Fold:
Amino acid sequence: MLDWTFVLEWGGFALRWLHVVTAIAWIGSSFYFIALDLGLHPEAVAAAGVKGAAWQVHGGGFYHIRKYLVAPAELPAQLTWFKWESYATWLSGFAMLVLVYYLGAEFYLIDPAIADLTVWQAVAISLGSLGFGWLAYDAICRSAFGRDNTRLMLGLYVILVGVAWGYTQVFTGRAALLHLGAFTATIMSANVFLVIIPNQRVVVADLIAGRVPDPKYGIIAKQRSTHNNYLTLPVVFLMLSNHYPLAFASDWNWLVASLVFLMGVTIRHWFNRRHAHLPAPWWTWAATLALGALMVWLSLPDGRGEESQEGAALPPAAARFAAAEGFDEVAGIVLGRCSMCHASEPGYPGIGRAPKAVALETPEQVARQAQRIYVQAGITDAMPPANLSFMEPAERAAIIAWYRSALRGPAPG
Structure:
């Protein structure tokens, strides 16, 4: 039977694949051009307007690359634009946000114990925060405050810390870190779409018209490109974080996310200095390790799992599954076959923490995890791993029948 959940799972997989591929292309080109720009050196004999050049070898060939301070005297016949990697990365990421967190808001976005939001309220906060983030960031960069790059970076970091904390006050821990990544990635992609590419188009238009381009457009674009360079590694971490509860399922998840931005700076600073042929700042590795150790310490178990939520009212989606035909049987199956690992104190040897921070010790917890149980132990045999607890085919069939029964029936109340 081809049901909606089945389609969503494959849709999510396809979008994730596309998102990773396009992100590789965007990050690769971004890192390459930053390294290229930092590695340029003046030549004894150079064309007018050339800032520097570099010789590189790759794939059995030699490349001689030159960069103009503003632009060449004439527009070249062929010009390659690097923009679609950024656009495709953001569009595929936003599509995943809609598919997983908007369509599955009651499971993955909303936690009544944190903020008792309706689906439309949660989605509105999500969309509004992404739009507001870009508008605020762009306004700050264009203001007098943004003329000092060091001051600007420090100010933006303080804002990111505040945003990280704010997201944890309205969304689940998993969704909060994911949204912080989306917030930052939106700024990065908008930098390309609304600043870097338009500025380059102004320069091209001036060349076509026979005018001398104003260097300010290149300076502004370089500033935004540098921001993107330092934000890339934290965004990758935040995009991966939803798979790792040690990052998102603690009271200090917002601080963990904040420290990642500092790690992004220390790591990129080391590479940028090396690309510029300057002495390696080895202190950055000590700082990175110290920040990483602090993150690990902050993620130590605090007795509260994001998924436990004992005593909290079931959200409507979970209540639907708790009231569906066959729930009592399925709850017994899951508690018997899965709770030895998915528990606040796992009993299976070698398991020190519930996988993905998912506890399945009570019927309420089973109802909250209905979709995961259906996918992992119903329509697939991914769980239990290697069927270590010997779940029977009839038990998997019972899980499937229960889940589909809930989808057919109306929500309680």
About this structure: Residues 173-209 form the longest helix (37 residues). Strands lie at 50-58, 61-68.
